[in-house]
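Entry type: protein chain
Record version: 2
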Amino acid sequence: MANSKISPVTGRYVTFDVEGEEYRVFYLENGTGQPIVCQHTAGCHNHQWTGLLEDEEFTQNYRIIAYDLPRHGKSDPPLNTEWWKEEYKLTVDFFTKFVVAFCDALELEKPIFMGSSFGGNAALQLALHYPDRFEAVIPVEAADYAPGFYLDWWHHPHANAAQVCASGVWDLMAPQSPDKHRWATWFYYTQGSEAFKGDLYFYSVDHDLRGKLDQIQGDKIKVVMMTGSYDYLTPPEDGRRTADQIKNAKFIEMADIGHFPMSENHEVFRKYLKEALNFIGESTTSKA
């Protein structure tokens, strides 16, 4: 058809083990060069990164890889355990080990890891525990501590869990972001309600880097934190305060954008991402 268009983005599965559990993980990728591994937000999936995956300016120099965390999108729970017999609670230990195992399965050498919201908090944990494994981390909408969101009513029997989870993120987006992208982000969240509460166990309970940020070896791994001005969940002052406690870290405040910058307004987000990647590149050059 004359009006058809085939995206250059490809999707694949990779199967690997994490501490004896077998996972079949779906990921999207496009581009060549330095790998950038992208983690979606809690209760969501890799569609959030479509704008970046199809952005030719970035894919000319970077291999963009966006996966679905197990239990999200097209990635199933573990294949070899009776996972349905236990409540899902994502932990720091599993999250970080999973990311490293995924990168190992794809044989990625010194990738950049970028995650948003709970994925941004995971980036901070990776910087602390695996500084030799990554060239840099980009924690987006992240902070050392974000308590208060591991709540029973995410799965309340009197509520439509999908609607509650999706509506709970609506006012975290900037009003300047295009309606079509805000509604797309809302739609993504209607599909991930089952995992949302378990994700928030990591986000609000198990993730706590207060008093530990000075242990991140900023001379080994570059850290660039990015926070939207409309994010009241982890506001810019939290991101700046966190970055100030990490050696050599950079903080970027993103104007006119909220808690889901890559999906609510990629055109705004990409400008700040270029700044972050330029800083990483310059730091790598000066270090060499």
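Comment: The beta strands are 10-18, 21-30, 34-39, 62-67, 112-116, 136-140, 222-228, 250-254.
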